[in-house]
Amino acid sequence: MPLPPGLESDNGSGEPMFDSHCHLADEAFEDDLDAVVERARGAGLRGALCILDATNPAEATRARRVSALWPAVGFAVGVHPHQAGEFADCLDDVGPRLRSAVAARAGACAVGEIGLDYHYDSAPREIQREVFRRQVRVARDLGRPVVIHTREADEDTFAVLADEGAPPPGGVFHCFTGGASMARRAVDLGFHVSFSGIATFKRADAVREAAAVVPWDRLLVETDAPYLAPVPHRGRRNEPAWVTRVVDVVAGVRGTTAGEVRARTSAAFEALFPAGPPRPAACPEGDQPPGRLPN
Predict the structure, then answer these.
(1) pLDDT tens, residue by residue, 170-208
(2) d(CA 68, CA 76)
(3) Using N-to-C axis directions, what is the helix angle for 33-42 and 57-69, rounded to 10°?
């Protein structure tokens, strides 16, 4: 499906919206986070889901500043498949460490991003699968949705989710890069599907076809900032404000307005990621970054 014409005809600026996946606690935003948040709000974003690496205490520390600057931001905490190798000799630590990281992060409303990445193979595949399984179990026990990362590992990703059973709230396949059939498969399993700046790329016809068929109540949009900046910003550091470009493309392929996409994806986001647990009143110990996991 080619890029639709006339993307600027309706920017939907009157409708608030959410970035369903970004990394605002990444060091890439350390120097100008306040300006990034200001631009996001100026673009009409009501909030976002910020992804945290459960093995990275520095990121957990930076997350406190994210919360201070943008209290509406929720958090997902998990072990990315790139870091799964840290558990190669201590798989039994996955569950306790993840639980600790989720409990330590005020506003944590999801587990993620977790999954499999066979493109980079930063960790042995059998270790990736086992770390993934154990995190799905924790999410199910905690009643939290999961944020799924899958790259060149679709069949194994679906197999793990089928074996373990999705958490009752479901979850989301983030930064979706598959086609319409894979999107339907994710929806049938009880998941949402989130589209990133990839949907704006010239050769991403299959991704746009998927964006056209996902039911409204399962459709989300994201930036994955600081990665994957959309056209016309490719090659630059991405940021939440630019999720509006994804909205424009999704509106075009669905034959509707950006305003409707904003409203519908906001409703889907709030249904999947309700407000996290109350923030502790005066308990600095309850908001400490989790310790680095043993190698």
Answers:
(1) 999 999 999 999 999 999 999 999 999 999 999 999 999
(2) 17
(3) 50
Q: Looking at residue 5, what is its pLDDT? A: 53
Task: Check: CB of residue 98 under 8 Å from CB of residue 74.
Answer: no
11 confidence band (pLDDT: 50, 70, 90)? low
pLDDT attached to residue 15? 84
User: Which CATH architecture group holds 17-272?
Assistant: Alpha-Beta Barrel (3.20)
Instruction: Give residue 256's pLDDT.
Output: 98
* Rounded distance between C-alpha atoms, residue 205 and residue 179, angstroms: 9
Q: What is the pLDDT of residues 119-164, one digit of tens each?
A: 999 999 999 999 999 999 999 999 999 999 999 999 999 999 999 9
From residue 255, how far is each of 55, 157, 212, 282 by CA, in Å? Answer: 42, 32, 9, 49
pLDDT at 294: 28
Q: Where are the domains of the chain?
A: 17-272
Contact between 101 and 290 (Cβ < 8 Å): yes
Rounded to whole angstroms, how far apart are CA atoms 205 and 187?
A: 20
Q: Of 14, 110, 107, 112, which Cα lies nearest the Cα of 66?
A: 107
Structure tokens at 41: 């709000």
The pLDDT of residue 275: 65
Give the span between the Cα atoms of 180 and 35, in whole angstroms. Answer: 37
| Strand blocks (E) in the chain | 17-22, 45-53, 74-78, 108-117, 146-151, 171-173, 191-195, 219-221
Q: Contact at 8 Å (CB) between 290 and 97?
A: yes
Sign of CA dihedral 24, 25, 30, 34: positive
